[in-house]
User: Which sequence fits this backbone?
């Protein structure tokens, strides 16, 4: 169950689709401990406010739910 799909870096944006359950030598565990019941999790990093990917995700609240947003200020 450790499979994940990465769309690589697109103009600094990184998109990764992962299963909600991961597995290692100790057994299965939630990929995100705060959200143990999710089947799939989509991680996106490096998205600017005007990102087309971000716009597409936000335009489909029936399909995608924002679970957490971490913003980092650039130095």
Assistant:
């Amino acid at each position: 169950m450790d499979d994940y799909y990465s769309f690589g870096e697109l103009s600094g944006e990184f998109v990764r689709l992962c299963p909600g359950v991961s597995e290692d030598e100790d057994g299965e565990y939630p990929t995100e401990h705060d959200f143990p019941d999710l089947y799939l999790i989509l991680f996106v990093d490096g998205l600017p406010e005007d990102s087309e990917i971000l716009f597409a995700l936000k335009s489909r609240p029936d399909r995608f739910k924002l679970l957490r947003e971490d913003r980092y200020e650039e130095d």
